[in-house]
Design a protein that fits this description.
Layout: E1 2-9, E2 17-25, E3 38-41, H1 45-57, E4 63-66, H2 69-74, E5 82-85, H3 94-104, E6 109-114, H4 119-127, E7 132-135, H5 136-139, H6 143-161
Amino acid sequence: MLKLKILCADSQDNRRWHQIGFLYAKPIKMNNHTNRKTFIVDDDPFWAAILTQILIGLGYIDIISYSNGADCISNLHQKPELIFLDYNMGAMDGLEVLQKIKAHNSDIVVIFCTDQKEISVAVSAMKNGSFDYLVKSDCIGLDLPLTIQKMTEMRVFAEKVF
């Protein structure tokens, strides 16, 4: 069992972090992801911090967070391989961001991780190229590690075939 610290930014000074709890997750055999650039696009800094901690526990270290879709899109030149995307964000919703990401590079894996539970949004996300659609409350358990394992297995298979 992995024991991950959950940290929260200080409300007065966002350069200081406070431990607010722990997350326990069952380890899954994973490939080394340390060289894969990953973006988190979410306007909730608390959730971005939790997701960052989970990803670090899974072996990801090159993680950049953006609070809106426009910043993500303007930084696609950094060539992320994986993007975690929220649906409800300021001026541009997650579906609009997804379409722009896929127009830029259809090989970027996008995983929606959102509080949005409407089936129509999930269906639209999958039709527009999202690899998976996860509800935030389910990401903390095994859903996120299993999705990443599935993504990794599909990439290894594709590399062997092509």
